[in-house]
Amino acid sequence: MEEFTTNWTHEELKGYILLYCAHADFNVSKEEKEYIKSKVGEEKYQKIRKEFEDDNDYQQIQKIHATIERLEYSKEEIDEAFQSIKKLFLADGKEMDVLEQNIYRGLKHLLQKQ
Asked: How many domains does the chain have?
């Protein structure tokens, strides 16, 4: 069985989760990119984006889950992450579409089991 360990920092995990969410509708808007960069900086964004693009969907979710566990996220940190995710989904000025809602619910289900 493959290990999905990372050496990401909290900021890099945040960037990866936001990038994962931004891809929910298969279209990362300029506003979404700028929002992610505002949260993690240009350098971390570029690093995480490259890794993200090299991973498939299964690897992406496994890395998110494993890193949340490794960093021992508290309930408050998970709640803060979901606030950022919601802001990201609304960054393009539109309501959350069905794909975004599904990603949001799926991550909430996965991460709130911690």
From this structure: 1
Residue 96 has pLDDT above 60, yes or no: yes
Residue that is written with structure tokens 């490259």 in the block: 50
pTM of the prediction? 0.89
Count of CB atoms situated within 10 Å of the CB of 37: 17
Residue 60 has pLDDT above 80, yes or no: yes
Rounded CA gap, 76 and 22, in Å? Answer: 22
Closest CA to 51 of 8, 97, 86: 8
Query: How far apart (Å, rounded) are the C-alpha atoms in residues 111 and 69?
Result: 9
Q: Name residue 85's amino acid.
A: I
Task: Give the per-residue pLDDT at 75.
Answer: 85
Q: Are 64 and 103 in contact (CB under 8 A)?
A: no
Q: Is residue 107 part of a domain?
A: yes
